[in-house]
Amino acid sequence: MYSVPLLLTLAATLAPSLAAPSRTLEARGPSQCAQYSSLSTGSYTLYQNQWGASTGTGSQCSQIDGLSGNSLAWSTTWSWANSPNSVKSYTNVEVPMTKKILSQYTSIPTTWAWSYTGTNLAANVAYDTFLGSSPTGAQEYEVMIWLGVWGTIYPLSDNGYPPTPVATPTIGGTPFNLIVGHNGPMVVYSFLAQSKVTNYSGDLVPFYRYLQTNYALSPNKYLQKIQAGTEVFTGSNAKLTTSAYTISIR
Q1: Could you tell me which of 73, 61, 72, 79 has the C-alpha nearest to residue 117?
Q2: Of residues 26, 94, 140, 142, which has the active-site annotation?
Q3: Nearest by Cα to 93 from 115, 52, 126, 116
Q4: CB count, 10 Å around CB of 109?
Q5: What is the pLDDT of residue 85?
Q6: Exposed e or buried b per residue across 13-38, where buried means at least 16 C-beta atoms within 10 angstroms of its C-beta
Q7: 41, 229 in Cβ contact below 8 A?
Q8: Is 140 a known active-site residue?
């Protein structure tokens, strides 16, 4: 996945917070800094995914900071320069999932408490999900939920840049701008929170239901992947700190 100056793509209904037992595990060892390294704990895997590192100059390291029940703490630190219109990485976490058609999901509750620091940031914090006609076939739809964005970067848009939202839905009490674009044949729906949501508690299913009702997204499409992370362009001395992340895919 790639980006141009005002164009961004990859490759995120309030719900009760997921309960977390009080037992806390210690931090999980040293940072990972290799381009495609990963770390796992519990059901979570943290992927470095520096897929665009060759377009810039810099470095990035990530680590798992702890696990309390099913609540994951993780962080990534980075500085990237050059090629400001190119993505350097999408460091993200995933959990295993049974890939089913949309109509078979009743709820995907998730929480995400995070903070971002740094200088001259061009980055986002976003869920990134993919759908297709089979569990492992071609990705036909990308559905993103942006909880925060820095710099002049925007999702893929079919109506120019800066993009004009095609709708302004409120989902789970949070107002979003919906941008629709294409990455080749893949349709990209991007829900941008109208202001940064640093302590999110919601359910992903209502986003798909909204698209089914308003944009004819088929309920027979398979949900193939759910990721949560940060897509990085440029900046210095940056750190995304996730103090608590949970997701339950039912």
Answers
A1: 79
A2: 142
A3: 126
A4: 20
A5: 86
A6: bebeebebeeeeeeebeeebeeeeee
A7: no
A8: no
- Token pair for 248: 């339950």
pLDDT in tens, 183-208: 999 999 999 999 999 999 999 999 99
Query: Which among 26, 94, 140, 231 is annotated as catalytic?
Result: 231
The answer to whether 170 touches 176, Cβ cutoff 8 Å, is yes
Rounded CA-CA distance 144/130 in Å is 9
Q: Omega of the bond prior to 162 within 30 degrees of 0, cis? A: yes
Neighbours of 213 (CB within 10 A): 9
Question: pLDDT tens digits for 103-160?
Answer: 999 999 999 999 999 999 999 999 999 999 999 999 999 999 999 999 999 999 999 9
**How does DSSP classify residue 213?**
H
The answer to whether 154 touches 162, Cβ cutoff 8 Å, is yes
Instruction: Give the number of other Cβ atoms within 10 Å of residue 41's Cβ.
Output: 16
Residue 32's region, left for phi above 0, alpha for psi from -120 to 50, else beta, is: beta
Cα distances (angstroms) measured from residue 157 to each of 7, 8, 186, 189: 7, 9, 12, 9
Token digits of residue 223: 């949900």
